């Protein structure tokens, strides 16, 4: 794998740091007028998802990480692995629980998700920004309340729990923003 | 990308700002000079890298390298040695470094020299210039030693690698810091990362409690750091009363380094010793040694008046005056559009 000098640091560059593939979120050059230059970078560790700050002595080189994002449709879970398929080549990829743990509750069959591969193995699965899911359980709610004040919890078919307005009922399909877990609206069937 | 990176109203304000600086010096009988941007020699600093170019028409008939100046310091000192008296210059300077929020590889520098001034007197005049051009509050003054004691609770003049590394573990787990072999590099890291962002910030404590708070220029006072360690003396005289420190100062405002000044070294032998020591460090770091400016040494030998001098980053100063967030917005065309 190629190495990258601090001069090549920029947002989006994937590096191996502490044995883990990382994505640079921000890079800033810190150069005292008469002193050693440094790079201050904010990075996301791609396996753990942690965001950390690191500094480098300018001019040093860091190993690149063989990381790429691909778009695959979610198929099914066999109890151990979550299976995804490329809709054009029909090639399938299986992700383990560690890779999907943050997105399990948003996985909807046939939805196209982003899989991050490191050395061709999936290390993270990002669901689409919006998913549509059926409500399996929620309190009937108060009659006459249509303003949606406060709302109530609703359990969705995947097990996710979101706050919905009081007028939304069991059996309805709703749209949810997976980045925030917020209710967006009802979906007409 | 043919369009300028700064707006036209900003560039007009810059023109007025530059005129105010010239007015300031005219009122003090400091006259404006121009010296070559292209030079046969350059600085030997380990951490300064000059651009160079080829000259094919030298009188010797040989092709030779010319360097773009990193500052006009050497040429201005030669004028001083020729009895120029107090002089200033607003010029382009060049440093071969990555562009960033606070740096463009080509930038505008204000530099001036005052015979019969020491570092204290020159800091006061720079403070006056700031108040006149960008309307700041009177500056505060902090020695390099006191800054480390106040912000990091240790004495930078009585420290060593082991102590520095143990202090750094409280702030960073970066491995290279633990392997570093130069105390100055670790001091510079602590200064840049942990002290500089807080210098002159009134509510330093409140800011760390409330990082969401947007800071405005009202929250800041310009802050001078003086008496740098003798190991970072650069071209400053070492103090006669305390040989651990040199008469070098820097100015910080809103977390940005704006100026670097010296009570100037006059001793040509000491100057040559420092150039050679710099070049030895360069070779040790795998960098080429730089040609030594014998014209400067000859001027010092002939006699540089007792004087102080300072260089100010004009693009940065103007950027802060206008509340701009990136230096590209303070100059007509940044390096990517040049």
Brief write-up:
The complex is a heterodimer of chains A (189) and B (338). Chain A contains 1 helix and 16 strands.
Architecture overview:
The model of chain A has no long low-confidence stretch (mean pLDDT 90). Chain A has 3 domains: 3-63, SH3 type barrels (Roll), CATH 2.30.30.30; 67-126, Nucleic acid-binding proteins (OB fold (Dihydrolipoamide Acetyltransferase, E2P)), CATH 2.40.50; 130-186, Beta Barrel (OB fold (Dihydrolipoamide Acetyltransferase, E2P)). In chain A, a hairpin with a 2-residue loop joins strand 10 (112-118) and strand 11. Chain A is mostly beta strands and 189 residues long. In chain A, strands 9-8-7-10-11 form a 5-stranded antiparallel beta sheet. Chain A has a 5-stranded antiparallel beta sheet with strand order 14-13-12-15-16, with no helix packed on it. Chain A contains 1 helix and 16 strands. In chain B, the strands form 2 sheets. In chain B, strands 1-5-6-11-10-9-8-7 form an 8-stranded mixed beta sheet, sandwiched between helices. In chain B, strands 2-4-3 form a 3-stranded antiparallel beta sheet, with no helix packed on it. In chain B, strand 3 (52-55) and strand 4 (64-68) form a beta hairpin. The model of chain B has no long low-confidence stretch (mean pLDDT 95). The chains are: A mainly beta (189), B alpha+beta (338). Chains A and B meet through strand 3 and strand 5 of A and helix 7 of B.
> What gap, in angstroms, lies between the N and C termini of chain A?
50 Å
Order of helices and strands of chain A: EEEEEEEEEHEEEEEEE
Mean pLDDT across residues of chain B = 95
Instruction: Tell me the name of the CATH class of chain B.
Output: Alpha Beta
Mass-distribution shape of chain A: elongated
Name the helicity range of chain A.
Answer: under 10%
Second CATH tier, the architecture of the largest domain in chain A: Roll
Main sheet attributes: strand count, strand direction, barrel closure of chain B: 8 strands, mixed
Can you tell me the CATH topology of chain B?
BirA Bifunctional Protein, domain 2
CATH topology of the largest domain in chain A: SH3 type barrels
- State the secondary-structure class of chain B: alpha+beta
Low-pLDDT sequence parts of chain A? none
Spatially, the strands of the biggest sheet of chain A line up as 9-8-7-10-11
Percent strand of chain A: over 45%
What is the averaged pLDDT score of chain A?
Answer: 90
